Request: fold
Amino acid sequence: MGDIRRIDREILALAWPALGALVAEPLFVLVDSAVVGHLGTAQLAGLSLASTLLVTLVGLCVFLAYATTAAVARRLGAGHDRAALQSGVDGMWLALGLGVVLAALLWTAAPWAVAVMGASDDVATHAVTYLRWSAPGLPGMLLVLATTGVLRGLQDTRTPLWVASGGAVFNAVGSVTLVYGVGLGIAGSALATTTAQLLMAVVLAVVVVTGARSRGASLRPHRAGIWANAVAGAPLFVRTVSLRLAILLTVWVATGLGAVALGGHQVVNSLWGLAAFALDALAIAAQALVGFGLGSGDTARVRAVLRRCLQWGVGAGAVIGVVLAASSWWIAPLFSPDPDVRVAITAGLVACGVFMPMAGWVFVLDGVLIGAGDGRFLAWAGMLTLVVYVPVALAVRAWAPEGAAGLAWLWAGFAGVFMLARALTTGLRARGERWMVLGT
Reply:
């Protein structure tokens, strides 16, 4: 009982601050949805399409946080503090370089990317505007990922919390001011988010650089270190590609179900993301604790952390699911005055709520295996689960009705079938021992 309580304290000490930081990030999208939604249905649908593409692009680079967390935590557990910070600094340089390249690509390819998704002309105009005003913020977004990963590996989840909270407040005030006060419309919403992300990146970079200097780590870019970070993140990149393809496929199906379903999907997807990030707080605690435990060679402790994090994940998922389903009818009016969109939001949220406990299981196991550096398995499993989901999504696109009913079927497929496939693959892996590799 004493060991369980100690593990609970360690999980909560990492998870609570991580929860605040993670929830602050999707609040950017939620605030944008609430502000832009009152400009009109076409603007909300355009934001839905654009934000999905932007989040997909940034999400493909989430290995900058995950791989860095695992590497830093392992080295810290093995007592190699300087090497831990050096790995983190190299990851930051990788993030900055990728951010500059991707910003240029996003600005250039925005019209093409929106056209591929099949949006109507009025929706496409707003989507392209949002993407192009968001592009300059990409270096900041990726640097936030890398620096946050370093701090999580050092078991510091409080600093990202304060920075993300400040960024969320700045974004909310800036979005309302630029959209309505200055009259920039959807462009103002994107500009507020871009500015907030760049400021967050500067603050977090200063914190990590200060820590690196105190431990004697070099701040210059090292080709070998940057390459090592890229190689370590490659399997997680593939795994993320599979997840993002599933999300893009879901948006493509929602687009085919009409503007009402697409607008409703934006809100449902934003709230799903908020819930997912809340549950990911436990996954982040698992990453740091599992990485540290494997680095120090304590397999018994790793197993104990796994069991306890799963119990917390399923329980938290059940609570969040009930809240989403029960409050769906009162949430919908906050995002749209259109009664049809409100019904679609409600139907989608009920579907999400039913499957949220299973999502808690999935997110925690993802965190455990990422913390163990088991990226190769996660890459293969991700592609397998995508193969399972594709025919389900295509069936919804072909046969589901437009509007609220179609959106409910779509979310039953994504939150039900897709998440079940992920739960089975990661659960079977965690039962074995091949993922528990000891040392740095």
Residues 2-431 form one domain.
